[in-house]
Amino acid sequence: MRIFDPHIHMSSRTTDDYEAMYAAGVRALVEPAFWLGQPRTSVGSYTDYFDALIGWERFRAAQFGIRHHCTIALNPKEANDPRCREVLDVLPRYLAKDGVVAVGEVGYDSMTKEEDEVFARQLAMALDHDLPVMVHTPHRDKLEGTKRTLDVVREAGIAPERVIVDHLNEVTVKLVKDSGAWMGFSIYPDTKMDEHRMVEILRQYGLEKMIVNSAADWGRSDPLKTAKTGKAMLDGGFTDADVDKVLWQNPVDFYDQSGRLTLDPLPGFTGEAETFEGNSVLRGARK
């Protein structure tokens, strides 16, 4: 079981998490830019954060054998804060950086006029920089937010295969599947989606364009939920090849549209067969 976690906020996680993720088979990840749990008060706090994503966090992940990539954006929650709007003017220089594989997270939180404007402007940046887009669907009124998201994406002229609509559930999955966009699911201990519900969605809708992530952050979350979803798939009758498609090949195919993925093993790390809760995975050994 090799794993690419396509949405995880490692700047809020510990080095123990990196070690556990590598042991469970994680070899690459994408860290989307998001809010920090409290309001930012200046553009400088954003640029410091972006610099950490493309520099320090990439280095930190490499110490544990994991390739780190990121997405860059003004997130929906802070799109409503006028103190943050100036960050839109500095985004282009970050969207040109190595390791930046998409514009994101963009989309909706409260579906305000301000969020409409920021969403549309960042979709235009994705077109300008030839990057795919990671879209955050709102936690409240998710169905309406997903419909509105797909409308805005169509109006922007972005091909649906270059968009992943994330944080989906049973209510929104068919809508996104019918649109032709990629479908993202965040597997959480208490909220959003769990691994057993995910297996049923895969059984009903198939494996094409399905993306599973842990979205682990500073809240109650689990960076091993990708591996646990793989185990649940195997227990549910899916094959090793099915698991590899969902946990590795699908996220690789989506983010490879950026032309910036780096997936070769890091120097000093090898992979050997071990077990994760009774199923074969790659367990890393440092040379």
Automatic annotation (TrEMBL):
Keyword terms of this UniProt record: Hydrolase, Metal-binding
Q: Which InterPro entries match?
A: Metal_Hydrolase, TatD-like, UCP005295
**Pfam families reported in the protein's UniProt record:** TatD_DNase (PF01026)
Question: What's an example of a GO molecular-function annotation for this chain?
Answer: hydrolase activity, acting on ester bonds
Gene3D superfamilies hit by this protein: Metal-dependent hydrolases (3.20.20.140)
State the PANTHER family in the record: HYDROLASE TATD
User: Belongs to which family?
Assistant: Belongs to the metallo-dependent hydrolases superfamily.
Name of the protein in its database record: Hydrolase TatD
Q: Which organism is it from?
A: Amycolatopsis alba DSM 44262
